[in-house]
Amino acid sequence: MSKRVVLGVSASVAAYKAADLASQLVKSGVEVFPVMTADAARFVQPATFRALTHHPCPIDVFEEPFPGEIAHIWLARHCDLFAIVPASMNVLARLANGLADDMLTAAALACTAPILLAPGMNTGMWDNPATQANLARLRDYGYYFIEPTTGRLACRTEGVGRMADVPTILAAIHEMLARQDSWRGVRVLVTAGPTREPLDPVRFLSNRSSGKMGYALAEAARARGAAVTLVSGPTALPRPGGLEFVPVETAAQMRDAVLSRAAEQDILIAAAAVADYAPVEVAEQKIKKEAPPAPNSGGAGQEEVGGLTLVLTETDDILAELGRRKRPGQTLIGFAAETEHLLDHARRKLESKNLDWVVANDVTQPGAGFDGDTNIVTLLGARGEEISLPLLTKREAAERILDAVTATPGEQSPGRATS
Question: Mean pLDDT for the chain?
Answer without folding.
Answer: 90
